[in-house]
Amino acid sequence: MELKLPVEVGEGYVSSSQRIRVLTEYWVRSTAFCPNCGRVLRQFENNKPVADFYCGNCWEEYELKSKNGNMGRKVVDGAYATMIERLTSDSNPNFFFLTYDKLTLEIRNFLTIPKYFFVPTLIERRKALNPTARRAGWVGCNIVMSSIPDLGKIFYVQNGVVRSKREILDKWNKTEFVSRTRDVDAKGWLLDVLVCTERIKKQEFSLNEVYAFEGYLKAKHPLNNNVKAKIRQQLQFLRDKNVLEFLGRGKYRLINE
C-alpha cells in the first residue's frame, strides 16, 4: 500500500482545498476496499450529497473526511440539522477518515467507522455564524471522535503502519452486533458504557471502576435515575457479544482479538 498522496493527480488545480480533495479521493478509490465484504470501491459521480464511495457488491456507502495533521478529539462537519437528520434516516453512510502531512503528502492514518456507531450525542452543535457572515445564522457541527469507542475505529493505516485486509474485515464483522440495536437511546447507552470501559486503560477492570463514570453517564443521560443498573445491563450485553469476558467477583476483561 502506497502511503503517499499522488501529487501528479492534482496538477492543474489552483485551489488547495480542491487539490487535496482530488488527491485523497483518488488515493481511496485506488487503494482501499470495502471493509464489509472486501470488494473494490467505486466513486460516486457528480458529488453525491451524502456519500463519496460505494461498494458494487454489498452496496455499503462511505463518506470521506480528510484532515491535515492529527485527527484530534473533534472533526469539523457540515450543517448540524442535516447531520442529525441523516443519523436518524436510512441514508446515513459509513465514514472514512484520513489524516496526512501537507508538506510531505504522506498518509498517517486511514480508518473507517461504521454508520451504526453514530448517534446524535456524538454530534456537537457549533455556534451560529455572525449576522455579518455570508451565511449568517448557519449552524455547523463537529463529530466528537473521542466519544466513539475504539471498537468502532477500524484502521487500514494507523500511525503509518498498514493493517492486513483480514484484520480489517474481522474487526468490521465484530462490530455488527451494534447495528442490531435500533433504539437510539439504547445504542447511546451501549456506546457510552463501552467508551468508559476503554477509558480505564486496562484490559482487566472492576465493576467499581466503571461505576466511577456514573457522573459522566448521568450528565449524558439526565432522564435516567438508576445509572448503576444501566451500567450492569450494558456490561452484561457486551459480555454476551464477546466484547467483554466476565471473570467473576465483579471483574471483567476486554477481549481484543
Q: Please provide the count of β strands.
A: 13
Number of contiguous helices: 7
- What is the H level of CATH, i.e. the homologous superfamily of the largest domain? Dam replacing family, catalytic PD-(D/E)XK domain
| Distance, first to last CA | 24 Å
Task: Evaluate the radius of gyration.
Answer: 20 Å
Portion in helices: 25-40%
Strand numbers in spatial order across the main sheet = 1-2-3-5-6-9-10
| Shape label | globular
Major beta sheet summary: 7 strands, mixed
CATH architecture of the largest domain: 3-Layer(aba) Sandwich
- Fold-level CATH name of the largest domain: PvuII Endonuclease, Chain A
Order of helices and strands: HEEEEHEEEEEEHHEHHHEE
Query: What's the number of structural domains?
Result: 2
Q: Low-confidence spans: pLDDT under 50, at least 5 residues?
A: none
Strand content: 15-25%
CATH class of the largest domain: Alpha Beta
